């Protein structure tokens, strides 16, 4: 698969992955109009894509789905296998086991190992277990509980029974071997043959046939449709199914750019997203046609300063002496239906490049000065961004001004700031827009008869309230079919060359617009073209940030960075997979750009090594530089998710002062005069008593906009800091870390679990209380002040949680939704009453000292009777 993907040839000159190869529509099929070397899309050019998509299907089948663990099934399997082993061991009675303890111990150990292996294999490959059960029953029937003669005589009456038992064992071994061979071929060998074997005649093997006239064609793109024969697991027979691809192509006739693949087999996919040279690279959304299992592919940037491999860690982990490197990855996750073992699957699409090299490249490129972070940003397109400035795949509404429609937002976040109302991801399109008023309207196709407006204003006439018999239909752009040319995409310019304009039809109640069949076709077409959403008057949605966008534009659009700092014994790809699963289930908005800060986290046995290296000055300095690069890239708000030991890493850097001058400090509004001192423009704390902060008001320009919107100045705001089962010292957090953190961050959240097994061993090894294992109100003992931290107790949760209870923030639905509210909406725990319930905690003297929040959910074992 990697060989089919194009590599990154340059750093700043590389086009983003969502770049489109537009294929102009030709009204005449002349060779002069065809680009030199261009191959028209056909079945032959689509066969490699078909093989890759079949490989995806086989891979899901090979790795299997997660299943509920059944204790009864494990016990029953172990009993059956132990019984079979007992029957086999009856024939070994000539060995005096009572006087041979070493031999007895060896036999017992081998027996236990064999039972464990057979149980594991039988649970995965059920036919192996079925053969074993059948053989056990046959042995009981023919030997009456014996495999060999107890007396050891060959002339015993039951000598024939012993022969039959041996035959049963031999047949069992043969069947087990055949079963394992078939499974190996279907799950390992055959998928590789489908993907890589050049000798496989695809047309003959799958009986591929061309569909000369597709059932439906796209309004905007080319359509290729064919059929092939595949195994239908629902009906247990071979059946012929159709496959269609609608979208953009490269010069070799392969899917490239925006496209939609539809395979009508039972486990085939309906995949819509970005393709590269015949392979879906994401971002994309996919769903199995028959099962409904859904998948999502998103992109995540990373900053790595470890010498470890991307997919593994080393005991002697160390920081890369060359400094941090930047890159990006695509991660595919299960989001609905059954979840598969091999997902999340991470593929590095922007290989890590040293920051020093990126910085030098930016300095050498004087014509287009960039920043080092522009490299990973160039890959961070979302699914919505991929659709921007492109027409809809199945069709779209068009107006006179632009032949293409941007995707409409389904939800809009509106925030109150000191400078007025602010909408992340949007830029004010008119300078006279009132910053204190926002008008949000629903936009829908006019034929639905709902209020809101028209997607396309072309030649359509607005209907009056009194005119209930007529409904205007928006102007559509349809590909020309002159000269027998096939359907193609709309040209990239605004001209209408090669396009037939469909006029406006008014359908009256009397049916004068045409026959019933034409009306049903138009109705079906309009249903496909339905596109509804929200728009903000006076604001323009901005979705693209590809590294070449100016920092000022990114700042004005309100782009925010979400930085995930993983724990120890966590490889880069593992951290990306965990964050990707959270984003896929939470559907975070496009203006939030995700990143992973990967530090040298060592292995399972290298706990103290990870703690020493992670809390070093070099790692803290790299984290500081990463935050600075985010600020220079135009980000003005950053959210930090710190899990396990990652919280210790960030808190250590904060405590050492590595973020002074980088993160925006909050203004002190209430403090005792003896504990603060002003030196220049900064406020330095002399103590920790009743210090209250507020966000500093931003300076305004003459136009009424803040300086952060006008130019690249100032610092970056730490909007939220979330501690997920943190492996940090409780006493140090109360004494120092909180007081440093609250200077920068107005929203601190702690998720703690009293039964966290990993943090239990951390307390045993470190001989200190862990912050993430004590869900209680945080109180500063010298003054009795309750710290402004939202403490969320997750001890009662029991869904999608493993036995260690340390790493489940990205799978538990309650936790995913709660993190969405924290990061996207900025809601405190008191504002999340629909999900959280508060309980009071008490001090040693019995007085109430604060609140701790728990989730409003029933345990998984509680059901209706």
Mean pLDDT over the residues: 75
- What is the number of E strands? 31
Number of helices: 19
Which word captures the global form? globular
Task: Please report which band the strand proportion falls in: under 5%, 5-15%, 15-25%, 25-35%, 35-45% or over 45%.
Answer: 15-25%
State the low-pLDDT regions, or none: 1-33, 91-98, 152-157, 396-404, 446-515, 521-530, 673-678, 680-687, 697-713
- The class by helix and strand makeup works out as alpha+beta
Helical fraction equals 25-40%
Report the radius of gyration as a whole number of Å: 32 Å
Biggest beta sheet attributes: 17 strands, mixed
Distance between the termini: 51 Å
Note down, in words, how this protein is organized.
This is Alpha/beta-hydrolase. Residues 453-499, 505-524 are annotated as: Disordered. The chain crosses the membrane at residues 74-92, 104-121, 128-147, 167-186. There is one protein chain. By secondary structure, the chain is of the alpha+beta class. Among the domains are: 71-191, no CATH class; 467-529, no CATH class. The protein is 29% helix and 21% strand. The protein has 19 helices and 31 strands. The strands form eight sheets. It has a 17-stranded mixed sheet that branches. A two-stranded antiparallel sheet has the order 10-11. A two-stranded antiparallel ribbon has the order 12-17. A hairpin with a 5-residue loop joins β4 (255-263) and β5 (269-276). α2 (71-89) crosses α4 and α3 (101-124) packs across α4 (126-143). The N terminus is likely disordered.
């Amino acid at each position: 698969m990697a060989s089919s993907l194009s590599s990154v040839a340059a750093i700043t000159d590389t086009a983003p992955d969502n770049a489109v190869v537009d294929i102009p529509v030709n009204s005449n099929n002349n060779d002069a109009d065809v680009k030199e070397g261009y191959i028209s899309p056909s079945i032959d050019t689509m066969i490699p894509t078909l093989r890759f998509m079949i490989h995806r299907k086989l891979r899901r089948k090979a790795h299997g789905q997660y299943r509920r663990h059944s204790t009864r099934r494990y016990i029953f399997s172990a009993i059956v296998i132990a019984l079979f082993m007992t029957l086999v061991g009856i024939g070994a009675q000539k060995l005096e086991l009572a006087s041979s303890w070493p031999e007895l111990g060896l036999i017992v150990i081998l027996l236990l190992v064999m039972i464990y292996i057979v149980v594991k294999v039988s649970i995965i490959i059920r036919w192996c277990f079925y053969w074993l059960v059948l053989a056990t029953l046959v042995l009981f029937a023919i030997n009456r509980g014996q495999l060999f003669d107890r007396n050891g005589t060959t002339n015993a009456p039951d000598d024939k029974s012993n022969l039959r038992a041996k035959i049963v064992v031999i047949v069992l071994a043969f069947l087990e071997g055949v079963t394992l061979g078939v499974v190996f071929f279907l799950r390992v060998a055959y998928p590789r043959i489908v993907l890589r074997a050049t000798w496989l005649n695809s047309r003959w093997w799958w009986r591929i046939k061309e569909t000369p006239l597709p059932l439906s064609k796209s309004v905007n793109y080319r359509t290729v449709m064919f059929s092939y024969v595949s195994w239908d697991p629902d009906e247990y027979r071979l059946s012929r199914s159709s496959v269609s691809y609608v979208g953009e192509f490269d010069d070799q006739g392969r899917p490239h750019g925006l496209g939609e693949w539809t395979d009508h087999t039972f486990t085939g996919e309906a995949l819509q997203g970005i393709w590269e040279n015949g392979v879906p690279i994401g971002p994309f959304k996919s769903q199995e046609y028959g099962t409904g299992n859904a998948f999502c592919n998103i992109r995540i940037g990373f900053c790595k300063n470890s010498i470890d491999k991307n997919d593994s860690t080393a005991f002697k982990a160390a920081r890369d002496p060359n400094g941090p490197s930047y890159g990006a990855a695509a991660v595919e996750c299960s989001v609905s239906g059954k979840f598969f073992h091999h997902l999340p699957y991470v593929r590095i699409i922007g290989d890590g490049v040293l920051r020093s090299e990126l910085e030098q490249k930016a300095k050498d490129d004087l014509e287009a000065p960039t920043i080092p972070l522009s490299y990973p940003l160039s890959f961070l397109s979302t699914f919505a961004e991929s659709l921007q400035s492109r027409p809809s795949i199945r069709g779209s509404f068009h107006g006179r001004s632009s032949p293409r429609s941007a995707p409409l937002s389904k939800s809009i976040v509106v925030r109150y700031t000191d400078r007025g109302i602010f909408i992340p991801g949007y830029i004010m399109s008119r300078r006279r827009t009132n910053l204190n008023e926002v008008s949000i309207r629903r936009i829908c196709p006019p034929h639905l008869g709902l209020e809101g407006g028209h997607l396309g204003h072309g030649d359509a006439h607005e209907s009056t309230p009194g005119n209930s018999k007529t409904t205007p239909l928006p102007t559509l752009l349809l590909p020309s079919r002159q000269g027998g040319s096939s359907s193609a995409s709309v040209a990239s310019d605004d001209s209408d060359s090669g396009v037939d304009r469909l006029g406006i039809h008014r359908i009256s109640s009397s049916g004068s617009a045409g026959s019933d069949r034409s009306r049903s076709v138009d109705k079906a077409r309009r249903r496909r073209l339905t596109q509804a959403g929200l728009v903000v008057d006076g604001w323009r949605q901005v979705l693209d940030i590809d590294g070449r966008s100016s920092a000022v534009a990114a700042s004005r659009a309100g782009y925010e960075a979400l930085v995930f700092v993983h724990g120890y014994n966590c490889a880069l790809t593992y951290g990306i997979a965990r964050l990707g699963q959270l984003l896929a289930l939470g559907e975070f908005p496009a203006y939030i750009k995700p990143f992973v800060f990967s530090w040298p986290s060592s292995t399972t046995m290298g706990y103290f090594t990870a703690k020493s290296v992670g809390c070093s000055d070099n790692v803290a300095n790299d984290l500081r530089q990463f935050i600075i690069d985010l600020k220079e890239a135009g980000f003005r708000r950053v959210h930090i998710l710190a899990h396990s030991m990652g919280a210790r890493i960030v808190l250590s850097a904060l405590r050492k002062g590595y973020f002074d001058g980088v993160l925006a400090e909050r203004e002190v509004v209430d403090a005792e005069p003896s504990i603060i001192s002003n030196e220049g423009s900064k406020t330095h704390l002399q103590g920790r008593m009743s210090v209250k902060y507020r966000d500093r008001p931003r300076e305004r320009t003459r136009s009424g906009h803040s300086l952060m919107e006008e130019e690249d100045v100032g610092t970056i705001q730490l909007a939220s800091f979330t501690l997920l089962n943190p492996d940090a010292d409780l006493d140090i957090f109360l004494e120092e870390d909180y007081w440093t953190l609250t200077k920068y961050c107005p929203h601190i959240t702690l998720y703690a679990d009293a039964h966290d097994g990993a943090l239990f061993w951390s307390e045993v090894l470190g001989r200190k209380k862990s912050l993430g294992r004590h869900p209680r109100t945080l109180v500063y003992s010298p003054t009795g002040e309750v710290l402004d931290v939202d403490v969320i107790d997750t001890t009662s949760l029991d869904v999608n949680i493993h036995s260690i209870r340390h790493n489940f923030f990205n799978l538990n639905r309650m936790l995913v939704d709660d993190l969405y509210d924290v990061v996207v909406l900025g809601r405190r725990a008191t504002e999340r009453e629909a999900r959280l319930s508060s309980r009071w905690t008490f001090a040693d003297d019995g007085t109430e000292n604060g609140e701790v929040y728990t989730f409003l959910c029933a345990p998984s074992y509680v059901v209706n009777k």
